[in-house]
Amino acid sequence: MSQGEPLVVAAGLRKTYPIFGGTLVKRRTGTVHAVDDVSFVIRRGETLGLVGESGCGKSTTGRLVMRLIEPDAGSIRFDRVELTTLGRRRRNEGRRRLQLMFQDPSSAFNPRMRVGRIVSEPMRLAGATGKAQRDRVAELLPLVGLAAEQAERFPHQFSGGQRQRIGIARALALRPELIVCDEPVAALDVSVQAQVVNLLQDLQDQFGLTYLFISHDLRVVRHISDRVAVMYLGRIVELAPTAELYGSPQHPYTRMLLDAVPKTRPGGARAGSRAAGEASLAPAAGRQGCLFAPRCPHVMPRCREEVPAFREAAPGHVAACHLLG
Amino acid sequence: MTGIAPMADAPLLSVRDLTVRFRSGRGAVTAIDRVSFDVARGRVLGLVGESGSGKSVTALALMRLLPPDLAAVAGEVRFDGRDLVALPEREMRRVRGRHVSMIFQEPMTSLNPIASIGRQICEPLRLHLGLGRRAARERAAELLAMVAIPEPRRRLDQYPHELSGGMRQRVVIAMAIACEPRLVIADEPTTALDVTTQAQILDLLRDLQSRLGMAIIMITHDLGVVAEFADDVQVMYAGRGVERAGVREVFGHPRHPYTGGLLRSIPDFEADQDRLIGIDGTVPSLANLPPGCAYAPRCERAQEDCRTVVPDLDIVAPAHRAACFHPLGVAREASP
Questions:
Q1: CB < 8 Å to A259, chain B
Q2: How many pairs of residues across A and B have Cβ atoms under 8 Å apart?
Q3: Domains of chain A (ranges plus CATH)?
């Protein structure tokens, strides 16, 4: 699967947001670097996991790929077409090939719309006929494990897991090639989460879908991803095939993150470095050198001055750490 | 000190048949149904379950924090020999925060946004321990140091919004341990936190627990947190206790099919799996529970008896209880 051609090529993505302060007159007092020089490739048919803690920029990256927000710099090519310079009309046409799934899909559902209408809405906006919409809904609902008759019901008549299935059906309505999944199972109970993860994998096999899977859950990401990128304060610090990343993490932050996951085998002493400190997006913290340096157990003087470049630790396994150089 | 006499062998907390019924527009809903468990002195009980299992309602009922006009509480909650359910509110107020305290998921629900950190930590110290202004402030700074907040003296004059989520939860913990309670009820204390911050908070709680010798009820949906933190575990499902044993027993030899299913649902962190094995169906609505075992409609082992009779939380193995007529492991041995 990982031999697929590149479907998404993101290069040097940058997105900053201004911070305003002041008591009487609001003035720009600083900048948040939400996404800072982020580059990656997603190959057709694979799942790229994007992990990191809150504020690391993983959702912003997902929205940049969807072009829901404009990058300050950098480029995104989708199937060899540059998205960042595309006009609005071509962009909207292209957008049906990319879909987004959220943590809580029902926040995007109109509670007074029947499920059939919710699922077919993207088709309606794309100009499909009523019959085509109804036929597609009758096809989609069984695909995601719901009964076709449930199209007549309202969102509140479904459980959280079922609502996520409705969200998946809607994301599939226009037969997309890439789905950006932003914390799709974070709000679900663990027993239901497994059902939805399995469904996402089945649909991928069936339709050759490509996923950008954004999550803070390192267990789910390990299970579903072919490759994983770890973000910290707006930058990717490590990217590797899943087994590589979890088996021999190279960046000290990746190691800290993995060590912090509670193990489900009681009595197994937690190994390695214990988590210390916390990430700060405060602009005062400065952006010179490695952003993890203030928390890093292996910090060297060089780390505070020089941004580490990506170095290859193994084929396809890169990490941005001076320890590797 | 108030007149609560320690009794050497009895458990610190003994809950028997605790039942909470909520009055609602469409009749009464039983949120928790005859829940029983013990917490030994200085031990950690993990109360684990999915949404709607009744774990948070249990905590609120123990603390007597449910609105009396909406919730009818029955059963017995013996804390150091006294029944908290029957205690007059005036006396209950002396127990709360002094002998039993609580930590909530979202620190801002327990912090006053317009009061300084110092004032908030001093409040229980002055109220319960009768400390003077200066002594309370002194003690508050010590407490902040105990929960590993840097520059504790400066923090006393700061406000909650000036702290990060992890630091706020440390302040809440400092408030909870201020009077050195014998029991702390922690309701999803790390759920809102990032995983590296969660690890730090769990380490802190464990350290404080061994230093102060307090017992903890750790309420969580996260089986990993339970495995790392708890000595004993009670699994809840749809308002009932379905399994209770030591932590190694529960994770090593789950007896209730629900516990087994829950453990299987978690993606493995060490081995690769082709597919996850979830549990089919969803948690039933409390307003509409099936007769018999609430898990029966989702259970692959369910028989006719499961669909008619509610199983009791009975002993199925030494020091191991499960509310199941056809428990895992046990039945397999009986009929090979």
A1: 199
A2: 124
A3: 6-97+176-324 (3.40.50.300), 108-174 (no CATH)
Q: Distances in Å between the alpha carbon of A189 and those of A186, A244, B186, B219?
A: 8, 29, 20, 15
Residues 240-299 in B contacting A (C-alpha not used; CB under 8 Å): 247-248, 251-252, 261-269, 272-273, 275-280, 282-283
ipTM of the predicted assembly exceeds 0.90:
no
Cα gap B328→B175, rounded to integer Å? 42
Query: How many residues would you count in chain A?
Result: 325
Least CA distance to A55: which residue of chain B?
B194
Beta carbons of A115 and A166 less than 8 angstroms apart: yes
B/e letters for B120-146, b = 16+ CB within 10 Å, e = fewer, are: bbbbbbbbbeebeeeebbebbbebbeb
Pairing of strands A47-51, A317-320: unpaired
* pLDDT tens digits, A264-317: 887 655 554 467 787 776 544 567 899 999 999 999 999 999 999 999 999 999
pLDDT tens for B100-117 read: 999 988 888 889 999 999
Question: What is the pTM assigned to this prediction?
Answer: 0.90
In sequence order, which residues have a C-beta less than 8 Å from that of residue A286 and are 6 or more positions away? Answer: none
DSSP A148: G
Residue A226 DSSP SS3 = coil
